[in-house]
Fold:
Amino acid sequence: MAIVSSYEQDGDAANKATKSKTKNLDPKPNSADLNNEKHNNLRPESFDEYVGQERLKQTLSISINAAKKRSDIASMGHVLLYGPPGLGKTSCAYLIAKELGSNIKIFSAPALERPKDIIGILMSLNQGDVLFIDEIHRLNKVTEELLYPAIEDFEVDLNAGKDDSTRIMRLKINKFILVGATTKLGYISAPLRDRFLHVHRMEYYTEEELSQVIAKSAAKLSLKINDEALLEVASRSRGTPRIANRLLRLVRDYSEHLEKNLLDLETAQKALDLYQIDKHGLDNMDKKILQVLIEHYQGGPAGLETIAGLIGEDKNTVEDYYEPFLIQSGLLLRTQRGRIVTEKGLEYCK
Ligand SMILES: Nc1ncnc2c1ncn2[C@@H]1O[C@H](COP(=O)(O)OP(=O)(O)OP(=O)(O)O)[C@@H](O)[C@H]1O
Ligand SMILES: [Mg+2]
Structure:
């Protein structure tokens, strides 16, 4: 079992305590991931830097401020963030912890295999900590049920004794805030979902919002880029800040390769064409999905597994990564009978 990432904002005594208390978890922190988190200097550092998602920011700020006034930060309630990858769920969790002045501990649900994994983590939490569980739809049933009393009453059930003499002991734990993230709200059971006070769907970003993300990132990278080039990168970023930052890095390399002092529209266009990112942000795999549906099924319907098989991609990647944007762009429909290319999609592939 690997704990994908366990990270605290202040490497303080609490951190050490957590690590020693959870060492029976056999933690194998993935140092590459840890380094990515720490060196991801493009992550927004405050809600002011966190572009867009206005309703999310507003509702969270209200609850955070109210909880702070009550001097009971855990009373802000648990938060569930759902939506396609790269829209800012993890970044938002960091910011909640930062605004609360709390430590954050990050785990990925598949890493919490055994009951003692989650129990160990829950018992190690300090008052007001933020516990972030990524891919929360992948929690196993036992772990999920152990979470219920913890998030509802801040209590854990411990098994004491062996076999016939097994007794359940209920222990109080420190009050904490659970932030769950998922790309698949539908896979979360109703009892778990209903225990979150805040359930928020992450929205795709507009081109203007992505331009702001890119402008902030360019400033952090000390890169000079003009407004037209900003918009060009934004328009090809499929509504997703992570992609915007990725494209910016590619465009920067190209611009540096040409020894340009200012990244302009022409340079951005040439670079993005070279990397085969088309005007709508579709890449080769997006196009392939539409094309196989048209070529093999006259536009559909066809099932997810069939499509994944035809393009040689994992079905979860097709469902979580490619499809949401194709659907959002009006190029593909997800129906009971399968996936169908829309009129707009047919037009696009001509
Ligand atoms: N609102 C935002 N403002 C500025 N930058 C953002 C915003 N949201 C995301 N980003 C940038 O995009 C990157 C990806 O965001 P993040 O890791 O938070 O997405 P995610 O929703 O957790 O994705 P996944 O589902 O893959 O875990 C961040 O590192 C950050 O650079
Ligand atoms: Mg994430």
In short: Residues 1-39 have pLDDT under 50 and may be disordered. The radius of gyration is 23 Å.
